[in-house]
Amino acid sequence: MLLNLLPSLSLAARPPLHLLDFGAGSGLLAQQLTAHGIEAISYDPYGMASALDLTHLPAHSYDVVCAFEVLEHSTEPLATLAQIRYQLKPGGVAIISTLLHPEDINAQRCNWWYCAPRNGHTTLFSAAALTHALKISGASSARSLNAGLHLAYF
């Protein structure tokens, strides 16, 4: 799916595309993207032994930063978004996956399967809250492709 999405992002960048997988876990996504000609780097701020220290990565050097299932684990989502923005080139895009809470969240409360503490999710977003967080983090525009996948242009 990501390989199909990348060409539609309206990036000024020409191949090769430079991508940072932020919150990369084992690094499998970057390995798979590299096999398709994308210059991809893995970084996991929450990993026990991250392959890279974010402070050693050059700032503003990535066309795309992916953060799949990261924000909901952050107790400081605005700081996490600032880290993501810091890595993006001007005009870059963050691809973020986090599930927006359902409309009946007041009825479900913490019975919603995506809710903490059993899965480590500490931050949950409505569509309005995520859009607001992205805007105050410096996104020039933001939109949701669906309830779980979101784009933010910086």
Write a structural description.
The protein has 154 residues and is of the alpha/beta class. Among the domains are: 42 residues, no CATH class; 57 residues, no CATH class. Helix content is 23%, strand content 23%. A six-stranded mixed beta sheet has the order 2-1-3-4-6-5, with helices on both faces. The mean pLDDT is 88.
Tell me the layout of helices and strands:
Layout: H1 2-5, E1 18-22, H2 28-34, E2 39-43, E3 62-68, H3 77-87, E4 88-97, H4 105-108, H5 127-136, E5 141-144, E6 149-153
Parallel strand pairs: 1-2, 1-3, 3-4
Antiparallel strand pairs: 4-6, 5-6
Number of helices: 5
Taking the sheet with the most strands, its summary is: 6 strands, mixed
Approximate helicity band = 10-25%
Strand order of the largest sheet: 2-1-3-4-6-5
Beta-strand percent range: 15-25%
The stretches of 5 or more residues where confidence is low (pLDDT under 50) are none
Q: What are the defining features of this structure?
A:
6-stranded mixed beta sheet, 154 residues, alpha/beta
Task: Describe, in short, the structure shown.
The protein is of the alpha/beta class and 154 residues long. Helices cover 23% and strands 23% of the residues.
